[in-house]
Design brief:
Strand order of the largest sheet: 12-13-11-14-17-16-15
Radius of gyration: 23 Å
Shape: elongated
Order of helices and strands: EHEEEEHEEEEEEHHEEEHEHEE
Distance between the termini: 45 Å
Largest sheet: 7 strands, mixed
Helix content: 10-25%
Number of strands: 17
Structural class: alpha+beta
Amino acid sequence: PVIAVELSPIRAWCLAQNARMVRDSFPIRAVCADAARLPIHPNRMIFHLDPARRSAGRRHHAYANLIPGPDVIDRLLNQFSGGILKLSPGVDFSDLPPGHLELISEGGAAVQAVLWTGSLAFARHDLRTVTILPATDDAAGDVESSYSLTARPMPEPPAVPPLDYLYETDPALHRAGLAPALAAALDCSPVNDDAGYLTSTRKINHPALRSFAVRLTVPWSESRVTNALVKQASAAPPLAAPVEVKTRGRLGLDTDKLQKKWSRLAGGLAVLIYAAHGKRHATIATRIAPEQTAS
């Protein structure tokens, strides 16, 4: 049996209507109340909490600004055997109570963090999980399986120059700190300081990676990349698609401006700009669609 508690009267009403649709599967009762004021009954063993992250029209990521806040959450943690806490992927992990942290992405965007606590968590709290889901509106989504990796965050290995293929890591994988663990499993190396880009001599088809075939890498400057794109376009006719411009790190570049400028010169290519060992670099590459990559 489930008791669902919602502070907003309108949302509580919607919740009650949804609950009626599943009442034949399991009993669920919707209550309009403040979770902070509800008595805790010891026979209700598991909780799932989706705290509000908005107040005064603003969205907050800090754990201290959740509604209900850390004081209520601590009470739930102490009185329930296990629980699930839904969070923003931007939350400061160091502020969280003990538990197993999972980062979830959908369609290439980090959309949620989940903290599994008590009996629902792994015994080892140094492990984290990343789960990658296809886009819900993806026509192939019904045949694509989700992907999960559970591992311990590892120190980022030293960056190396790009090899034949470059891979952009899924944002949830990167946010969870598990890019180095996947790199080690796939025998890849990072090319930038935060392991947001990995490289290898072989094609890899993996749901946590976006693949690019490397054409050329130059020290970053707008003029160098412009000249390199002109040479690339002269070697092969440019495609109708725009140039894709990606950056890793806070480089302070106007990617929209660069995309417009370079798309007139050499369409269909990708320019990936990143920092390694304190210096900026730009790799000109061709995106490889997932169905074209080898396993």
